Amino acid sequence: MTRAKVTxxxxxxxxxxxxxxxxxxxxxxxxxVADDVNSTGLAVxxxxxxVGILHSITGTMAISETGSVQxxxxxxxxINAQGGVLGRKIEYIQEDGASDWPxxxxxxxxxxxxxxxxxxxxxxxxASRKAVLPVFEQYNGMLYYxxxxxxxxxxxxxxxxxxxxxxxxxxSIDWVVKEKGAKTFYLLGSDYIWPRTSxxxxxxxxxxxxxxxxxxxxxxxxxxxxxxxxxxxxxxxPDVIFAxxxxxxxxxxxxxxxxxxxxxxxxxxxxxxxSVTEDEILGIGGENVEGAYASMKYFQSLDNPNNxxxxxxxxxxxxxxxxxxxxxxxxxxxxxxxxxxxxxxxxFDVDKIREVFPGIELKTAPEGYVRIHENHHLWSKARIGQxxxxxxxxxxxxxxxxxxxxxxxxxxx
Amino acid sequence: xxxxxxxxxLMSIFAMQGFAGxxxxxxxxxxxxxxxxxxxxxxxxxxxxxxxxxxxxxxxxLTAGLFETVMPGLYGIxxxxxxxxxxxxxxxxxxxxxxxxxxxxxxxxxDTLLATWGLSLILQQAYRSIFGAREVGVxxxxxxxxxxxxxxxxEIPINGLIVMMLTLVIATLVYLLMFRxxxxxxxxxxxxxxxMAEAVGIDTGKVDRITFALGCGIAGxxxxxxxxxxxxxxxxxxxxxxxxxxxxxxxxxxxxxxxxASAFTISQAQSTMEFFLSGSMAKxxxxxxxxxxxxxxxxxxxxLKVRR
Lengths: 413, 308
Prior knowledge:
The complex is a heterodimer. Chain A has helices spanning 8-25, 31-37, 62-81, 101-114, 126-138, 165-180, 193-208, 227-236, 248-259, 278-284, 286-289, 305-318, 326-345, 350-356; strands at 48-55, 89-96, 120-122, 143-145, 158-160, 184-190, 212-219, 240-244, 270-273, 293-296, 361-362, 370-372, 378-379, 383-387, 393-398. By secondary structure, chain A is α/β, with parallel strands linked by helices. The longest helix of chain A is centred in the first third of the chain and has 20 residues, at 62-81. Chain A is elongated. In chain B, helix 1 runs antiparallel to helix 11 and helix 11 packs antiparallel against helix 12. The mean pLDDT of chain B is 87. The interface between A and B is large, with 45 and 52 residues.
């Protein structure tokens, strides 16, 4: 190891650039070990490796992204306590995307170019992911993205740890049709790409079964008046309200639904949502959403040893009254999947990690077992939970097998 | 599109849509009254109006917690105490802001826009630091969340009724205060001609401070009321600010009556169109109509005839 201690500038002076390259190419002992582990100049030393965390901690999205930041930090601390990755402690650099998409892109560039982080955990909205995508592809970084989203994307530089739309929607619609005898659906969402794509997939699936969509509607983000649509729902009497309303609108929607005399516990109509996690219930209030069904892959109440340990650790780290939603759990998977991939590849190089991705599995995931698909999404189970008054979900159904991620469903290619 | 429905169904839907329109109207009035006083009467473009509302909402949240732990027996009526406290909290903050910032900017109205926008960012971050970035759930007594079933289809939300009553009370109080009291006369005098008002011995500085505090206080009450229908988070105030300015500007900035007329027009147009079209299209059309009318009548629906 003595030769490795010669500093690079010193070597350069003695050998010149060509000499240095030749020397490196010869693969002399000492420096060659570091080369395998890190041949692209990432911020990796003998005993540390730098990673990035890129979420909004200010601005309107901070409400949602806080949980993800907490989960990622917890995972990193736990990995460090177990000895780190390839014997190196993880050090994180946290940047604030400030709920502003150009800022996300700028901070992503800073993390990849200036800080030379080995990987980045981050983003929440599709808009922020789309904004950083060109940066990650240009500088060959790797992003672990935690949110359930609309699909229709597959980048070599992103691992999607949340559900894509078909995983979330198909099983849940099958379930309400089979178990609840649903025949008519009312699709309602906030007006942007995720609810629109999700409803498109849902409509197709519903109509393929010969059932009927009696209404499909979108409201601007942040809309707070849902009385008119609630009246329409009353008039058309659907069996199921399929809701993908997000953010502050959620609170308004459920409060007004209750105030208008629609008691979700009576399931007439039944409400199936793909956008309300335990995090959102905190703002809505359990008594206002009680009885609604949500389709997710993770609920805090999941009964398995992995999840018990996870919830306990999370509460110890971030406080007893905290709740854990689907995305928070998916964010927690990021650092662990990365660790597994790095160790399998024996290197921090993004290209080498990418080669080993398909088949990387995690048996310790709080949601149970997950595996990375060739299309960079996760094989995972779909679950349905019913909201309880205390703000938790009771799991009423889970698919027997892992669902295959299908980011480009038929008819959308 | 009505062919599928029976006559009683249609009647009840019209009744409920009418109620929805009215409740939207009272919400708009409640949102806009505070701003109409500050923007209309004082000429201060208060971009932090939404944050004053959210201060009221957080006050309600804290009061709810207090009642739940200290005197659960009175929980059913905590909301009225909360609204009063919300008024006090927002008015006090308004007074402080006026003294620190706004009073230096009266002759630079456009700069108030920037200054209060900065203030709104500061307040948002303050809420985030104090209450956390997540939304808080304001729990309400059960009797406030229910509805009165008139027929099978027609159900009148109780919180809608409460908002309507509240709007009526506050609008009446503001009317009495502005047009039937000595203080209101002073305010109007300062609005119309500041140097002359000073010359006849009105303490314009004090009038300004109290007017601003009143506007903020009403925003606080509105915020408290909106915990019944909306979310409470550091940035929730942003959800209301656009609609609020829309109502005030469309009504004619200086006329309180105009504010009410414009709230009525916009709310009825929006809720009717929401029923026949989708939510997003209704919003687009409403905004288009407002833009169109403002192009023809830049001074808004109602304009005071004042000598300038």
